[in-house]
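Exercise 7 asks you to align residues with tokens for two separate proteins.
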Amino acid sequence: MTYINRWIFGLILSVLCSPLVFANEPIKIGVSLSLTGKYSVMGISQMRGFMLWERDINAKGGLLGRRVKVKVYDDKSDPDIARQLYEKIITEDKVDFLFGPYSSPITEAVLPITERNNFPVLITGASGDKLWEQGYKNAIGVFLPASKFCTGIFELIVISGLDNIALIHADDLFSNTIRQQAYLLANRYGIKITYSESFKKGTRDLSPFALKARDSGAEVIILGGHFEDAVDMRLALKKIDWMPKAYFATVGAALDEYGKRLKGDAEYTFSVSLWEAKTNFPGAKRFYDDYLKTYGEPPTYHAAIAYSGGQILETAIKKAGHIDRDRLRDQLFKMDTITVLGRYGVDSTGRQVRQQSFIIQWQKGKREIVWPERIATARPVFK
């Protein structure tokens, strides 16, 4: 079944499982996602998460006695298209609330629009710290900012006694944040950066960068990028017949698709994950089972983030007793709640400060949690 057919199936289920009668017009929530283009793997996962939440909340009677409708548009992984879509969603669709698009660059492109229209937006697909450094009063983060993504891997690097790392990253907002944080952590822990370079987003052959990392004497490669970047760097390492003692790739390597694409070559890759079913947050197992039953494959953490965004909005609306945007904004800034993703709570800028991240590693064909130690399902392996 294609993802489009599964999406249609999910929509049919949402109708069949919903109460037959609702008062008033539906509560409309708008979002553009990367259903096609370079971020499509993550965008499709997020769409599914939103659709599953829509189905579940309507099956429980909706919100304030009204059905909930999530309107999803395809921004084709293009910031300019996303800008146009959010203008349309706000001015023509006249939605009641907004979820943010996938990726930090696209979210950065649409935030001036949401701010100008005084629309609070739950940022469910981006983590670049710069998003919360512009003074926006409507940008509310759902998951941990990018500056926290490397914390766990650096702790493991220090514990393992490794000293030399190479930093390779795409030239985008999220990946640059990864680089900056890696520099800070390397300085803090006394780790030497033997090589650091960025590559133009969309570059597929990363073997020249892998060669430079190898020749620099690096023991660890930290790659800042997205799904295809993570895959391409692993293929580059195979091409030059070299594997560092640790290869850490943000975002992409935490997805099942990484293992499907690379098969045995995925082995020993580290990544950061923001949700794993094994952590067993309240409702996480039911979410996992429902997602698997509906879409025929396990949820990614991107899907869990989207679903949790719906749960956060649900809680805020119930607490406010209204869909007035000013009241909802106030609730979202002061709330401290638990979702399938874990704990939610933001600081005065809207930056997420309460969520936990995990370091996973591919071992024997599956992802294992290797950090933090208290919930680890396996010990980390360094080559």
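Second protein for Exercise 7:
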Amino acid sequence: MAQAAEALKDRPSPRIIKISSKRQLTIPADMHAASGFADYAFITWNDDGTISIEPIDVRDESASVAILRSLLAQGLSAEQLVDEYEKIVHPTIDYRAEVERGLKDIEAKRVHPFSDMQQRLKEKHGL
């Protein structure tokens, strides 16, 4: 119980953010740092009409090649090359797998049209 309370204490506090006229939003710096966001996020609709945004890293093969070339230029042995590459490249996901997961959600009717979400928001919040 004390651990759960301690974890909540360190969590950034909720707040309201503005969405720009271009439908862009800014993740507050403390939330960005605490959640592990990088260059990409995975956004999904939830059955209750809310949106979830999760940090993801998208595999960029050209970046991997550049890292490997740089390490090779340092004259590392094969084992050193692997060790250094693992230090530099943190775990990533292949965006194709996430798209596949989204398509399966659509096929299984786990996601709904935007108009359904708008209706739920109108009913829930009188918007």
